[in-house]
C-alpha cells in the first residue's frame, strides 16, 4: 500500500482518455489546438490574462521559470528544505547558468517575510557577493503546509521592495487551494507571484505540468529555453490534452480534495504524533523505528524522515480501505 | 494530408495501450519493472550488453549523451546540416556547458572520413583553439540517406585514431535499418559508436526516445544529468512501456517499413525530381514555386526547402490512398 | 627578430614607470584614484560619456561584453576568421553560458552589411533555431584591414534594424585609428557600436585592456561578471595606471603610428606579394616554403599562414634596423 | 593607516624590479623562460614534482582548480565562511558550470573531519541530490587560523575515503606556513591536497598567484580552462617573473613573517578582546561601536565584522610605527 509519495499515483482515467483522444492531431510541438487552449483555460482559473506552457516535470517548470527570472550571477532565495535545493540535482544551477540558491530557515519549510528580509540584509551590496534576484516558495510546502493569502502577500511585499522576482513551486498547488479555500488568483498574482509551477502529475496527471506566467513578458524567453532544454515535445498535444482534462470540471480540485481528505483521516488517528499541522496531503509523524517496522510489516510503504519520524503522503487514487487500514494501524501503535 | 514531418504522426495504438496498461505501477521515476526491462530489451536488439535510458525528446537524448562525451571546452564534430546544429536551439551548448559544434560539409548531410579528418587537421593543437572531442552523425541523415556499415566503420576508425567519442543521432534509426538491412549491432557499436539516440517518436511512439549506451560507463553520469535537466519523469514507467511496445514483435521495424515504402512510392512518381536518393522516409524534390502551390492546392502539406525544392516526409501511419494521391499529383505536374 | 606577433612586444617604459608609481595606493580592487579616472579619460577620447573597465586580456574584454550583450540562448554574428571564433578557446560560449557564434564570410575578415543581413535571413524565426542577438566585428581585422566610418555605420544600421547589440573587438583599435584617421567617436558609438574592447597590450601596454561601454547600462552588470570571472584584480590600480599612461599625451597613437609605419616599410618591399592591402600593422605575403625558410635562416621569426603565405606583424617597439633588414631580405627573395 | 586588508598592500620592490627586468622577453603567453621555470621552482618548494600555472587572482586560481576537480553536477564541500562561498561572486558556479557549494560549519572557519563526514552523510546516494565531489579548505582560514599538518591529514583521509578531490585555498598560505612551521609539502600533498592556490598578491606580489598542482593530471585541462576564461595573459612572463622573485631567497616567507609579527604585536595589546587565536596576519577583536569610532578617529582604517567586532589585517609592508600606534590605541581603549 503506497504512502511513500503521490508522484507514483496512477493517472486519472480521464487523463488517459484525453491522451488517446488527442492522438490524431497532425500538428507538431505546441502548434496544436489543445496547446492553443491553455492560455485561455488558465486565464479563466486565475481571472486574468496569463500565458501557460506545458512541460513534463516540476523540475523543468521550476527551473525554466527561475532561469528567466534570475541572471546567472544572481541568487534565488528559497527555504533550506525547498525541493529546488534538495531534490532537483542542482537543476537550478544548470538551467540558470550558475545562479546561487540562498537559503532561509523557518518551521514547516515556510519562508517568512522576516527571514526573507534578513537574508537579503546579510548580503553586502558589492560585486563580491552574489546579489538576491528572485524568491521561490513552495505551496503547499515540503512539509505539507499551505500558505495563506496574507502570508504570500507579505512575501510579495518584501519581494517588491527588494526587486526580487517571485516564483511559486506549486507541485501540490491543488492541495493548497483545497486546504485554504483561497482563490487561485488571490494566492498568486494578486499577492505578487509572477510565475507558478502548477503541478498535475502528483494529482492525477500522467506527465504534464503547467508553467503559468502572470508576468507574460517571461513567456517568449521561456518558450525558447524550453526547446533548448529538450523539453519541447513534438507531440505536445498530449500534454495539453492532459492538462485540459484536469482542469475540465475541476477534476484537479476533486482529486486534491480526495487526497487531502485521506490525509485528514490519518491525522485524526494520530493526534499526538503530528510534527506539523496537516494542511494538504502529507503527514509527518513521530514514530519510533520499531513502530515504523510494525507498520511496514503490515504492508504500508513510506519513507523515514530523519530519526524517529516518518512521512506519509496520500494520493487522489488512494482507496478508502487502504487509508482506513493505515489509520487503524497507527491508532493501534 | 500531412507530409511535412513524421514528428506529428499518431502514436501506434499498441503504444497507447501500453501507456494505459502501465498506469497502475506504484513505483516512481525509473524504479519500475518496465524501466528495468529496457537494458535487457536493447541488449537483445544490439547483441551485446548495453545500458538504456528513456527520455522524452531526441534533443534530450542527443544532448545528454554529448554532454557526457565532450567536455565544456571541447568541440563536437558534426555535419553543417545536422539537427543538433540547426534545430535544437543551441541545446548542445546548453547541456555541455558551452562546447562548440565544429561543422563539416558533404553531400546529403553525410560526414565522410576525409572531411572528418580534415576538420580535425585544421585545428592547431594549442590552448587557443577548441580541440575536437566528439563526433556526432545522424542516421538516417537529415536528407534521408542511410549510412552503410562500412561508412560508419570508417568514421569509427577516424574517431578512434583521433580520440573522439562517437555518437549517433538515430531519430530515424529504424528507417535506416530497414533501408540498409544492416544489423543494429553492425552499424553501431561494432563500427565504433558509443552512444545512440534511438528514436521512436517519429515512428509510432508517443513521447519516448531511448538513449542506448554501448559504452556503459557513460550511463551513471547521464542518469544524473537527466535528472538535473528535468528529464526524469516521476511516472517514467509509461515511457518504458511505450518503448517496450515498440520493440515487441519488431513493431519499430514494421512501422519504419511502412514509412519507407510510402517514400518509395512517391520516389517512383518523381524520378527526375529527386535531389538525393531516397533511402529512408524523406524525399527532397525539385519543384517550382508554382508546382508547389499546385500541390498545396490539392491539400498536401509539406515544407519548402530552399528555392525550387520541397521536402516530403512519410510516416508509419500514412494511408495508402493519401500516398497514391500525392504520387499521382506529382507525376501530373 | 620578432615578427610573429605584437602581443609579445615590450611594454613601453612609461607604462612600467606608471606601474611602479602607482604601487603605494592603499585601496583595493577598482576603488583607487587611477581607476576612478578611467571614465573621464575615455569620455574625452570618445567625446561622450562612457563607462570604462580595466581587464587583463582581450579575451576577457570581448567575452565579458558579449555575455552582457547576448543571452545564453542567442547567437553572436561574427566573421569566420574572427579572433573570438578561432583564438579564444571557446571563451564566448563559456562567458555567455552557451551562446552560439554564427559565422559570416567576406574578404579580409571584414563583415559586410549584405553578409550580415543574409546570415540573419537564413535563420527561421522559431524556437528551434538560435536567434541572432549580437554582432561583433574586429577593427583592425584579423587580416590587418581597417573599417571606414561608413562601413561601420552601415553595419550599425543593419544591427539596429535587426535588434542586434554591436560590439567591436579593438585589439588593434589604435592601429585602425591611425590608419584611417577616423575619430574614435565616429568609428564607434556614432556608427552604432555599444561596446569596444580597446586594446593596449599589443601596443605598448603590459597587461591592461579597457572595455569601453558607450551603452553605459551594460556597465554594472559587466562589473559583476568581471568579478565572477576572476578578473577583478585587488591591485587594479596598476591596470588603470597603465591605461592612463597610454592615453596620456596620445602615447597609444604614437605607438600605433610606429607599428603601422614599420608595416608600410615592409609592404613597399613586397608589392607583388601582398594578399591584402596593408592598413594596420599586419602583412600577409605570398611566400613559398623555400622563401620562408630563407627568411627564417636570416633570423626572422613569423608564422606561416596556410600554404604559400606568411604573416608578419610589426610592433611599436620594432627597431628600424630590424625592419630595414627584413624589407631588404624580402625584396631580395 | 591601512588595516582593512592585505590585498591593498604595496608590491615588494623586488617584484616591481622583476617585472621591469622581464619586459624584453619576446615570447608570448607562457612560452617564455620565466614561465618555464615555475614547475621547477615549486617542485623545489614542495619536494616533489608539481605543475604550476600563473593566474592573476585568487578567485581564478581557486575556481579553475575546482572546475577541473568537480563536475558541473557535483558539490564542493567548504566552510560556510569560505572565501569561495562569500567573496567570489558565485565564481565557483560560473567556472564549474553550475556545481553546488555544500557548506559545513565549525569555529574559526575551519573544516573538521567530523563536520565533513557528517555533511557527506546527509546526502542521499541517488540522482535527486547533488553528490559531494570535492573539498576545499582555506589555509590560513578566513579567521586567521592555520591548519596543523595533522588537521589537514585527517581531512585528507576523509576526502580519500569519500572520493573527494581536495583543494586548498592558500591566499595566505605563506602566513600559515610561517605560523605553524610546517613544511609546505607536509601540509599539502603529503596530507592529501591535490591542488593549492598559492597566494602572492596579499604578500608582496603585484598581480600574480600560482596554482600548484600536486595531481599533475589536472594541469593540461586547467591550462585550457585558463585560456578559455581569459586568464592567459600574452605577456605572462611578468607574472612568472613576479612569482620567481617572491620565491627567490624566500622573500615570500620573510614577508609573511613581517605581517604575522605585526599581528602578534597587536594581539598582545588586546588579550581580552581576541575572538580567535592569532595564528596568521588577521585579528578579530571585540570592540564596541564607540571604541571602533575612536580608533577610526585616530586614522586607523579597518572593517567592522558583525556587531561588536572588528577585523584587522596586517601586511608585509606595515610600518612598525603604525603597528605600534595601533597597539597603543587598542590598549588604551
TrEMBL record, chains A, B, C, D:
According to its UniProt record, which cofactors does this protein need? pyridoxal 5'-phosphate
Which family is it part of? Belongs to the threonine aldolase family.
Instruction: Output the SUPFAM superfamilies linked to this UniProt entry.
Output: PLP-dependent transferases
Q: How does it assemble?
A: Homotetramer.
Work out whether the entry's keyword set contains DNA repair: no
Q: Give the domain of life.
A: Bacteria
> Where is the Aromatic amino acid beta-eliminating lyase/threonine aldolase domain positioned along the sequence?
3-288
Q: Which GO terms describe its molecular function?
A: lyase activity
GO biological process: one example: amino acid metabolic process
What organism does the record attribute this protein to? Answer: Sphingomonas lutea
What is this protein's record name?
Low specificity L-threonine aldolase
Instruction: List the keywords (alphabetical).
Output: Pyridoxal phosphate
Would the keyword Transport be found if you checked this record's keyword annotation?
A: no
Amino acid at each position: 500500500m503506497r504512502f511513500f509519495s503521490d508522484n507514483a499515483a496512477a493517472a486519472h482515467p480521464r487523463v488517459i482518455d484525453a491522451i488517446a483522444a488527442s492522438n490524431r492531431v497532425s500538428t507538431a510541438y505546441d502548434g496544436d489546438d489543445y496547446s492553443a487552449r491553455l492560455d485561455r483555460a488558465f486565464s479563466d482559473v486565475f481571472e486574468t490574462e496569463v500565458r501557460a506552457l506545458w512541460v513534463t516535470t516540476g523540475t523543468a517548470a521550476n527551473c525554466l521559470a527561475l532561469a528567466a527570472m534570475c541572471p546567472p550571477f544572481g541568487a534565488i532565495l528559497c527555504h533550506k528544505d525547498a525541493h529546488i535545493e534538495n531534490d532537483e540535482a542542482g537543476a537550478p544551477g544548470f538551467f540558470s547558468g550558475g545562479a546561487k540558491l540562498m537559503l532561509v530557515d523557518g518551521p514547516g519549510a515556510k519562508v517568512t517575510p522576516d527571514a526573507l528580509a534578513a537574508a537579503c540584509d546579510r548580503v553586502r551590496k558589492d560585486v563580491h557577493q552574489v546579489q538576491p534576484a528572485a524568491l521561490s516558495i513552495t505551496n503547499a510546502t515540503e512539509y505539507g503546509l499551505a500558505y495563506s493569502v496574507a502570508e504570500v502577500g507579505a512575501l510579495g511585499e518584501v519581494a517588491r521592495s527588494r526587486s526580487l522576482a517571485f516564483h511559486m513551486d506549486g507541485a501540490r498547488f491543488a492541495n493548497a487551494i483545497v486546504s485554504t479555500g483561497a482563490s487561485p488568483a488571490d494566492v498568486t498574482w494578486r499577492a505578487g507571484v509572477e510565475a507558478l509551477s502548477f503541478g498535475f502529475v502528483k494529482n492525477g496527471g500522467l506527465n504534464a505540468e503547467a508553467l503559468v506566467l502572470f508576468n507574460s513578458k517571461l513567456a517568449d524567453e521561456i518558450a525558447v529555453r524550453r526547446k533548448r532544454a529538450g523539453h519541447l515535445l513534438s507531440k505536445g498535444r498530449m500534454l495539453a490534452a492532459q492538462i485540459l482534462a484536469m482542469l475540465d470540471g475541476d477534476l484537479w480540485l476533486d482529486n486534491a480534495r480526495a487526497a487531502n481528505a485521506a490525509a485528514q483521516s490519518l491525522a485524526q488517528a494520530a493526534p499526538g504524533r503530528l510534527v506539523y499541522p496537516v494542511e494538504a496531503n502529507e503527514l509527518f509523524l513521530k514514530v519510533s523505528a520499531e513502530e515504523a517496522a510494525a507498520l511496514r510489516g503490515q504492508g504500508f510503504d513510506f519513507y523515514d524522515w530523519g530519526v524517529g519520524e516518518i512521512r506519509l503522503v496520500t494520493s487522489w487514487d488512494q482507496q478508502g480501505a487502504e487509508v482506513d487500514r493505515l489509520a487503524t494501524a497507527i491508532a493501534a501503535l
